[in-house]
Amino acid sequence: MEIKRFNCNYLSENCYVASEGAGAVIVDPGFLDDEIDGLYSYLDAEGLKPEAILLTHAHFDHILATKILQDKYGIPVFLHPDEQSTLQLDRKYVAEENIRNFQPEFERTPVSDGQMLVFAEGRLKFRVIATPGHTQGGVCYYEEKDGVLFSGDTLFAGTIGRTDLEYGDYDMLIRSIMEKLILLPGETAVYPGHGRPTSIAAERSDNPFLEPFNEAEEEFDPESIEPVIIHGGEAVPL
């Protein structure tokens, strides 16, 4: 799999193009109007035909160019249905940030946890992993063959997604990461929605937000255990 990363908008959002042969998918296209020509130039130069847009979630900085690209290429946009609440908030955020020409009215194809999305004549296969917490309907896309995870704003190098925005839930986000992402093979390459790529192994070891997982185990000392006997249903020290 070939992966091209684009840095988009003033929030430094990462858009990715993943391709095999001539088939390609676009992950989280957060391009402003004056940035998108870079994407077009890359697709043309590499002879790539976009087949779909994969959205990890619907915060405006990840979806700014979605409708433009859907109209241009006539391709489906995959998004979890629980992101409707996020889409409704986007207009508020965009107005506050004075972003023009925002178009959230694109056609959406719903995804669900465990669903497999297949592109490029079967050479790209992404498993949907539902990871709510940053938003209600956040997902990651996992390509097992090449060991690649597009994590959106769920997991970053050395940190995790923020949960102080509306509909964020810290406990839910931690569960999503610990129960689903951290269990992936350590060599899995993680391509987040902001910042540099990382790996599952690196986050297991070094991410301070995952300390319950990466905390070093204490060496067991049998002499530190006080012997007891059970008497009348109670533990009594010897």
In short:
The chain has 238 residues and is α/β, with parallel strands linked by helices. It is built from seven helices and 16 strands.
Task: Walk me through what this model shows.
- The chain is an alpha/beta fold and 238 residues long.
- It has a single domain, classed as Metallo-beta-lactamase, Chain A, CATH 3.60.15.
- It contains seven helices and 16 strands.
- The protein has helices at 37-46, 60-63, 66-73, 84-97, 170-181, 200-206, 211-214; strands spanning 2-8, 13-20, 23-27, 49-54, 77-79, 109-110, 116-119, 124-130, 139-143, 148-152, 155-156, 159-160, 189-192, 198-199, 228-231, 234-237.
- The strands form four sheets. It has a six-stranded mixed beta sheet, covered by helices on one side.
- Strand 9 and strand 10 (148-152) form a beta hairpin.
- The chain is globular, with a radius of gyration of 21 Å.
- The model is unreliable at 214-222 and 224-238 (pLDDT under 50).
Provide the fold topology.
Layout: E1 2-8, E2 13-20, E3 23-27, H1 37-46, E4 49-54, H2 60-63, H3 66-73, E5 77-79, H4 84-97, E6 109-110, E7 116-119, E8 124-130, E9 139-143, E10 148-152, E11 155-156, E12 159-160, H5 170-181, E13 189-192, E14 198-199, H6 200-206, H7 211-214, E15 228-231, E16 234-237
Parallel strand pairs: 3-4, 4-5, 5-6, 10-13
Antiparallel strand pairs: 1-2, 2-3, 7-8, 8-9, 9-10, 11-12, 13-14, 15-16
